[in-house]
Amino acid sequence: QVQLVESGGGSVQAGESLRLSCAASEFPYNTLCMGWFRQAPGKEREGVAMFFSRGGDTAYADSVKGRFTASQDNTKKTVYLMMNSLKPEDTATYYCAAGRYVADLTLPREYEYWGQGTQVSVSP
Hints:
Blueprint: E1 4-7, E2 10-13, E3 18-24, E4 33-39, E5 46-52, E6 59-60, E7 68-73, E8 78-83, E9 92-99, E10 113-114, E11 118-123
Parallel strand pairs: 2-11
Antiparallel strand pairs: 1-3, 3-8, 4-5, 4-9, 5-6, 7-8, 9-10, 9-11
């Protein structure tokens, strides 16, 4: 059972930055697909940044390309989401997710484990 604990959300103004963290519990971390998703009120959950923990390219949503960067620290079993140039439309609850058998990185249903979510609010 993978447990994910997120931190780092908050309220900022447009143009500012935040870094989210997600610590994974002991598990075959290097075989997991990790993802950052977000969900705004009244909207479906959408993928923001998704990648395999063993390495490789990261898939980003078009809306965040060039502004958000996902990274990982394998020694700490922690993944990060650096969010720069934040916009009001980035306001949402952000979730960290992990899955062992992910065929489509962008689909939330492919991920087995989820963090509790952390709120990001961006004011104009």
